[in-house]
User: Which sequence fits this backbone?
């Protein structure tokens, strides 16, 4: 016989579902969330889109394809990509050391990783430009062998490595902590070398976390301003201007159309990067049966 749910049973089910909510105020909380999200995020981003639509496609392309703007995009994207790759390598090494080994001052090193998040980026930029200048602690020795960091694209990469490294470490560290050591033991018992164990057993498990950290560091680097504004030199001739500096420059010249056009492109790039990060996280969640 086919079972049909009665009205009383439906009411009982609804009552039970309502009782499961221990803390009341769902509608009020949802309203506050939507309001704050709209005021702080959605409305400002929508204003950029609306203002950009006032510009004709020809004018938009003309603003984006200017030589200094193209160079700024190229500098920001290439420097951010290179810095993110460096952060993936060294972030994995740091996370591995913090999880797998015990050494004096480990807690201090773990705490210092958060420093780029807490430190004002302008302070970081001033400090790095001083250290890597031709008279600085690091720059003096590097300049003797013909390597110049401050006021070059290399300096931009150094600054972006500084601000992006914590993203990779904090993405990889929890995965390493939860990883069962039996995987390594099983690979060793089957005759796998340490190198093969790392690349065949451990690295595939860390790949989604590494991609997430890479995407976050890349997105942070493209929009970074404070840490690169001093060490880059901001020279259009030497192609050391970043996109964020060009936007500020156009705003100071009251060129709102140009600033908005560049901001829209930045918005699209950031959205695609965050979409990439979310896709990686969803696939990892499905892989570990969390969804």
Assistant:
């Amino acid at each position: 016989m086919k079972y049909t749910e009665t009205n009383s049973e439906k009411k009982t089910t609804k009552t039970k579902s309502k009782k499961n909510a221990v803390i009341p105020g769902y509608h009020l909380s949802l309203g506050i969330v939507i309001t704050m999200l709209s005021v702080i995020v959605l409305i400002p981003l929508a204003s950029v889109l609306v203002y950009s639509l006032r510009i004709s496609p020809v004018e938009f392309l003309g603003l984006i394809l200017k030589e200094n703007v193209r160079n700024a995009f190229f500098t920001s994207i290439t420097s951010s990509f290179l810095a993110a790759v460096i952060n993936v390598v060294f972030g994995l090494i740091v996370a591995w050391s913090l999880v797998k080994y015990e050494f004096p001052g480990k807690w201090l090193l773990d705490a210092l990783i958060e420093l780029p998040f807490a430190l004002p980026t302008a302070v970081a930029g001033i400090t790095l430009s001083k250290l890597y200048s031709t008279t600085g602690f690091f720059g003096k020795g590097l300049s003797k062998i013909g390597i110049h960091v401050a006021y070059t694209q290399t300096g931009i990469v150094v600054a972006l490595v500084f601000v992006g490294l914590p993203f990779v470490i904090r993405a990889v560290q929890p995965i390493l902590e939860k990883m069962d050591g039996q995987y390594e033991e099983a690979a060793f018992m089957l005759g796998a070398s340490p190198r093969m164990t790392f690349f065949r057993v451990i690295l595939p498990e860390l790949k989604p976390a590494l991609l997430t950290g890479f995407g976050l560091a890349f997105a942070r680097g493209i929009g970074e301003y404070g840490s690169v504004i001093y060490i880059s030199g901001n020279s259009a001739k030497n192609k050391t201007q970043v996109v964020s500096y060009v936007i500020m420059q156009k705003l100071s010249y009251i060129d709102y159309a140009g600033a908005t056009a560049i901001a829209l492109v930045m918005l699209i790039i950031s959205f695609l990067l965050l979409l990439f990060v979310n896709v990686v996280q969803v696939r990892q969640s499905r892989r570990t049966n969390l969804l």
